[in-house]
Design brief:
By secondary structure, the protein is mainly β. The chain is built from 1 helix and 11 strands.
Length: 106
């Protein structure tokens, strides 16, 4: 998985963030079968953390866990939920391909 997605609420979400990651799996977003595993990161929060003004938020989004996950179907539709300890459930609903970057709502 490569690239970023846009959220009108929080800005760009990076699917290739550098670790260390907050928990296992210790990996950026990766496709495993029809699902995504690993981590994405909200760039505006990560940037604020670097500057020391994030309010102790880190911006990590876990893409799969017990009872939830983000999936990609054969047509490239991205659906499902990720989890952020800071923002709660994150609903992914996008398409991939030659069109615009995928979007996610937060």
């Amino acid at each position: 998985v490569t690239g970023n997605a846009w959220s009108s609420n929080v800005g760009w979400v990076d699917f290739e963030p550098s670790g260390p990651y907050p928990a296992n799996p210790q990996t950026p977003a990766q496709r495993q079968g029809n699902g995504l595993i690993g981590w994405a990161r909200i760039l505006s929060i990560a940037d604020a953390e670097t500057l020391g003004n994030s309010g102790d938020w880190s911006g990590w989004v876990k893409l799969a866990g017990n009872g939830y996950g983000v999936t990609v179907d054969a047509a490239g539709a991205v659906t499902g939920y990720g989890w952020s300890d800071e923002l709660g459930w994150i609903n992914f609903n996008a398409t991939t391909g030659a069109g615009p970057l995928p979007a996610c709502s937060m």
